[in-house]
Amino acid sequence: MRLSEILGKEIIDYTKGEKLGVLSYAEFIIDEQGGYIHTLQIPITEWNGLRKRKNIIQFRWNKIYRVGAETILVDPSQADFQSEYK
């Protein structure tokens, strides 16, 4: 599968059926020595009162449940979270 084929797919929490984002806003961390995708990072921005909060959800590629025709199914319990306020 080419990178251009998976861009634009919706990332779905398969345990809740909740949309987490669209892959066009995500970043890949690639293992340079092995040449494979190691981690998928998805930035999610939320407003909390007057402050803007940016969360980054990271999924290891081997923890992604399934890549479908229009969606990528993931389990957030397998993810790492980073959060920062702006």
Descriptive labels:
single chain, 86 residues, 4-stranded mixed β-sheet, 8 strands, 5% helix
Describe this structure in words.
- The chain has 86 residues and is mostly beta strands.
- It is built from 1 helix and 8 strands.
- Strand 4 (36-48) and strand 5 (51-60) form a beta hairpin.
- The radius of gyration is 13 Å and the shape is globular.
Task: Give a short summary of the structure.
This protein is mainly beta and 86 residues long. It contains one helix and eight strands. The radius of gyration is 13 Å and the shape is globular.
Task: Write down the overall mean pLDDT.
Answer: 82
Distance between the termini: 36 Å
Low-pLDDT runs: none
Order of helices and strands: HEEEEEEEE
* Global structural class: mainly beta
Radius of gyration based on Cα positions = 13 Å
Put simply, the count of helices is: 1
Spatial order of strands in the largest sheet:
2-1-7-6
What's the overall geometry? globular
